[in-house]
Write a structure and sequence with these properties.
With 409 residues, the protein is an alpha/beta fold. The protein is built from 15 helices and 16 strands. A nine-stranded mixed sheet has the order 3-2-1-4-5-7-6-8-9, sandwiched between helices. The chain is globular.
C-alpha cells in the first residue's frame, strides 16, 4: 500500500466504498472483489479497500468500535497499542501536568489519538510515508494533533515547544521477525533514553526485557490486558512514580481486566517464603510475574498465609482465598501425585477424564505431546498443574474457584 492508495481511500469515492463493504469474510473476498470491479471500480482501489476491511476487522480486538473508521497498515496494526492501554499512557502525561507531547514513532497514531482526546497537544512523527498518511487520517478529527512525516529523532523539540516525549520503537525486522536486543530497536533504545535527560519521557518496550537491562532511575511498568502481557513501559522524570533507588529502576504492574484496572507498586523488602502446599493454588497474572511483584500481589489480594510452592517458581499456595481482584487465577487443590506419565494416565482413566487442561512451570514438558501419551478417554474434564512440590516433579490436580470458573465460561 502507498500514500496514493491512502489518498484514494480518503477521497469521497473511497469513503463511500469503504462504508458500503460488508463485514470481511475471507471466503467471500474474491467474489466481492470481482463484483466491485465489474461495477467499474479501479482494481487498485478495490484491493486497497478490501485490505482495510480485513485490517479493520482484526483491529476491533485492540481498538473496539473505533477501528471501524480508522485506516491501518499491517505492521502498524501489529505494533499499535491497545486502546485502553494507550488511555493509561495518556493519563500519565495529563496527570503530570504536561501539555505538549512529541510522539516520536507514532505509527498509525493510537497513542497520539488518546493523548489528543484527553486535551493534550500532540506532535506525531512517522518516518514511513504510507504510515504517516494513515496516521494523518486517524488523527484528522483532533485539531490539537499534527502529523509530521519525519524521523522523530530529528525534530527540534525546543522549537516546537514540546514539554514531554513518548516513543514506541519498532521491535521487528523488515521480514517481520521480533527483535529482542534493545540496541536493535528502531530507533535504538539508548538514543531514546538520552532524550529523558531534557524532558519527561515514556517508552514502550518489549515485556520480556530482563531486569538487569532496565535503566536506573526509571519506573518500569509491565501491563497485561485480559490475561495477556502486552508491554513494558519505561517512565522517566515526573512521569515516573517509582524512580527506583540504589541505581536501579522501580517496578510496577498494571493489570487490566474488562473495565477493571489494578495497579501494584514494588514494596522494598516484600518477599514470600516457600512452604507446604495448602488448600488453594494461585497463578499470578503475567505482568505480576514479569515485574517480580508476587509478594505485593499476595498482600493486595488478602490471601491467607500465602507462600510459594517452590522458591523459584511463580505459583503461590494459600490456606484461604477471597476475591483475588484479577491478580491471580485461583484454584482449589484436589490432589497431588508424582509426575510420571503412567501414574497420571492411570489416575485420569480411573476418573473418566477425557479432557485435560495442562498448566506447567518448572517442568520441561510439551502439553500437546503429553496429551498424546496419556491417550485420554472419557467425558470428564480436569486441570493438571505440572510443577515442583517439596522439590519433586509433581502433578497438582485442581479445580477453578467459582469466581474464576464463571469468568472462563
Amino acid at each position: 500500500m502507498t500514500p496514493e492508495d491512502i489518498a484514494e481511500l480518503t477521497s469521497p469515492a473511497g469513503r463511500v466504498l469503504l462504508d458500503s463493504l460488508p463485514p470481511y469474510a475471507p471466503d467471500l473476498a474474491m467474489k466481492l472483489s470481482e463484483g466491485l470491479r465489474r461495477r467499474g471500480l479501479p482494481p487498485r482501489l478495490v484491493a486497497a479497500a478490501l485490505t482495510q476491511s480485513r485490517l479493520r476487522q482484526r483491529a476491533e480486538s485492540k481498538l473496539g468500535e473505533f477501528a471501524r473508521t480508522m485506516l491501518f497498515t499491517d505492521a502498524g496494526l501489529q505494533q499499535a497499542t491497545r486502546l485502553k492501554v494507550a488511555a493509561h499512557h495518556a493519563r500519565r502525561y495529563r496527570g503530570a501536568g504536561l501539555t505538549h507531547v512529541a510522539d516520536l514513532t507514532c505509527g498509525i497514531g493510537v497513542d497520539s489519538m488518546t493523548m489528543a482526546a484527553l486535551g493534550l497537544r500532540v506532535t506525531a512523527a512517522e518516518v514511513d510515508p504510507t504510515t504517516a498518511a494513515v496516521a494523518r487520517h486517524n488523527l484528522h478529527l483532533f485539531p490539537s494533533a499534527q502529523v509530521i512525516e519525519a524521523d522523530g529523532l530529528t525534530l527540534d523539540l525546543d522549537g516546537l515547544g514540546v514539554d514531554a516525549v513518548f516513543a514506541d520503537p519498532s521491535r521487528r525486522t523488515g521480514a517481520g521477525r521480533r527483535v529482542f536486543n534493545p540496541a536493535a530497536y528502531t530507533p535504538p533504545l539508548d538514543r531514546l533514553l538520552a532524550l529523558g535527560a531534557d524532558r519527561p519521557l515514556g517508552l514502550k518496550i518489549a515485556p520480556g526485557v530482563p531486569h538487569a537491562a532496565l535503566p536506573p532511575h526509571h519506573e518500569a511498568q509491565w501491563v497485561s490486558d485480559d490475561g495477556t502481557v502486552v508491554e513494558c513501559t519505561l517512565w522517566a522524570g515526573p512521569l515516573a512514580r517509582l524512580p527506583g533507588a540504589a541505581g536501579r529502576a522501580g517496578r510496577s504492574a498494571l493489570v487490566l481486566s474488562g473495565d477493571q484496572a489494578t495497579q501494584l507498586d514494588e514494596q522494598p523488602g516484600a518477599r514470600l517464603a516457600s512452604g507446604q502446599l495448602g488448600d488453594f493454588l494461585l497463578e499470578p497474572d503475567g505482568a505480576i510475574v514479569r515485574g517480580s511483584l508476587i509478594a505485593e500481589a499476595a498482600s493486595a489480594a488478602g490471601l491467607d498465609n500465602p507462600r510459594l510452592v517452590h522458591p523459584r517458581i511463580a505459583y503461590v499456595t494459600a490456606d484461604g482465598c477471597a476475591d483475588t481482584a484479577n491478580l491471580f487465577a485461583a484454584f482449589r487443590v484436589v490432589d497431588v501425585i508424582p509426575y510420571k506419565v503412567a501414574t497420571l494416565r492411570a489416575y485420569l482413566r480411573a476418573r473418566g477424564v477425557g479432557h485435560l487442561t495442562i498448566k506447567k512451570r518448572g517442568i520441561d514438558v510439551d502439553p500437546d505431546s503429553l496429551r498424546n501419551e496419556l491417550r485420554l478417554r472419557g467425558e470428564a474434564h480436569a486441570t493438571a498443574v505440572l510443577t515442583r512440590v517439596a522439590g519433586r516433579h509433581s502433578v497438582i490436580v485442581v479445580t477453578p474457584c467459582l469466581r474464576q470458573a464463571s469468568q472462563e465460561h
